[in-house]
Amino acid sequence: MLTFVQVDPTTESSRLILRRYYDDIIGRYNGRPATDSEIEETLADEPSDDLRGETGAFVVARDGHEVLGCAGVRYIDAEVGELTRVFITSEARGRGLGAALIGEVERVAERRGVRRIRLEVRGDLVEAQRLYRRAGYREVAAFSDGPYADHWMAKDLVEHG
Question: Is the pTM of this model over 0.70?
Answer without folding.
Answer: yes
